[in-house]
Amino acid sequence: VMSLLRTRARGIVASCRRGIEEFWKGAYMDPTVGAKQKHLNAVTGDPWPAALLRLKSFEDLHKLWYVCLKEKNLLMTERNYFQQHNVPWKQYGRTKKIKLTMKRILTVLTRREIHQQILKAQEIAEKQNVREELETRRFHLEEGIKQLEHKVERMGNAESVMKSAWRATLAKYRTDHDELMGELKDLRKDTMQYLVPDWRYERKYSDLPGLITFRRQWVRALQEKSRRPIRTY
Prior knowledge:
Layout: H1 2-16, H2 35-42, H3 50-53, H4 58-84, H5 92-155, H6 161-190, E1 202-203, E2 212-213
């Protein structure tokens, strides 16, 4: 039983360590590859152009990013090995191509995100215009409801044709107000992005998609307290 447990434990440890050979697999440090094959593996083409990267989906760009990252780790490992043994390393061109490809992938993803944000902002602006019209109608309906309620209350218990007409108009106003509030419920939820707190402390776009928040003290004009020099004399 103990031997079986030891065998399984060794298998678990071996499976956990799998993948580390990717740092030198196929490179100059790989003992299982011949010298001719190593030179062939070192021959690379041009970096990926941005025109071709724009045609790929997000999943393909995600996979290509990790392929470049693995290649970059391999080259960094190889460069460190050569530096430790005082051997000149001649693969700086491959590192430059990998970095250029990764930079272009980030650029393509950033431009896509900016484009999506612009389309989303246009859609929100259209909804905001519709919401402003409905909010104006809501305000006038609420004012009319208050005025009619006050008129009906002043009439007291007396019944008249005018009081019946006011009640009918009041019921119609309340029905229109309920329908209007149902339409405004979704519009208010969709246009809540206009109410962003601390908008002065946020930068909309950067080299990576998404928001980047920074502290108030990092901006000179937004500092709460101005630092005065301390005099020691």
